[in-house]
Amino acid sequence: xxxxxxxxxxxxxxxxxxxxxxxxxxxxxxxxxxxxxxxxxxxxxxxxxxxxxxxxxxxxxxxxxxxxxxxxxxxxxxxxxxxxxxxxxxxxxxxxxxxxxxxxxxxxxxxxxxxxxxxxxxxxxxxxxxxxxxxxxxxxxxxxxxxxxxxxxxxxxxxxxxxxxxxxxxxxxxxxxxxxxxxxxxxxxxxxxxxxxxxxxxxxxxxxxxxxxxxxxxxxxxxxxxxxxxxxxxxxxxxxxxxxxxxxxxxxxxxxxxxxxxxxxxxxxxxxxxxxxxxxxxxxxxxxxxxxxxxxxxxxxxxxxxxxxxxxxxxxxxxxxxxxxxxxxxxxxxxxxxxxxxxxxxxxxxxxxxxxxxxxxxxxxxxxxxxxxxxxxxxxxxxxxxxxxxxxxxxxxxxxxxxxxxxxxxxxxxxxxxxxxxxxxxxxxxxxxxxxxxxxxxxxxxxxxxxxxxxxxxxxxxxxxxxxx
Length: 469
Known about the structure:
Low-confidence stretches: 1-25, 465-469
Strand content: 25-35%
Helix content: 25-40%
Mean pLDDT: 86
């Protein structure tokens, strides 16, 4: 419901109060007040009631399971942000941390060893890569030399051997022709010896030619072939050595990876142990007051157990219910004036922070919750749960023209009008009205400061016989 606005600087001067119309006995009379149009401030508020709650509170618990070694506060104590509230027995966790640190050192040593061995093996692989390359070069060189050695007996030696055979055949034929023509015993003997030598020479050069044409191995070719065989064996061995070292590298990389993972796991174990040690201490997250203590020293607790409940009394919030008719005018950030039943005469400035989207329906009435936040000065005596009321300021105007709301009526077309005195006459004048607190209304246009308006009211006469109504 809208509350009467606070009007500052508004001076309503009643000039004349006369009874203009008197009806028959027992009937209501109409009274008229003449009021000047003045300037002033107008504030429109919406009122709601509720109870005070802490805007910030914390239910604290340990982050790990253990036995409570010490609780440093009592219910009602004031605490500062970061102040130690409770601690757990840390002996088991400290042992776990030490074990984790030892495991990390061992894992790091293993990692260094495996990575060093991996490096040596990779360096060895570089040597074997070079050996394989040299073996490939040696094989190609041996094959080249073999091919070159075989080529020696084909060009141009084969052609020369063929020419020698041709010459030997010609000479043999010449010797045979001479023998056939010999007429004396001496000539026969001479030509017979010549034929024999020519035949022997022909046999020799033909044998040489046949050997070359048949590709028979000479000693050099045989040596070259042995060099090729040796080079092939060396290449095969070099490839085997390289394959073996690659397998060793793959194995050592797996070992190095496992070692690195072991270091990571050991480090995580240390981090977890340190985290658990850190969570054996509960500290105050903000300045506040201990509302409740839910545990005692020596209790074994888990992270689900609340140890201490802290509230911040320097900042409070009030949740009020507003009618669905009023809620459209309420916006986050609007100012509010808060009063408490327990502290009459004191007012506190707040701001609207939240408008709940879903309504509460009570007896057919639709209500919406609105949360208002406000700071609490020290030693005010405000406590959680106190009843309070809030005037939410929805509109505010300064130095505007004001008239009593009852001075505004409607003409036949439903438009706002007021009655204005001009001299001895009362005339009806249309106006444009602004905001209203239901007692006074802002006039945007249609009137001037100092003009006089008529406010009519119906007054019932007192009952006859002097009886009070």
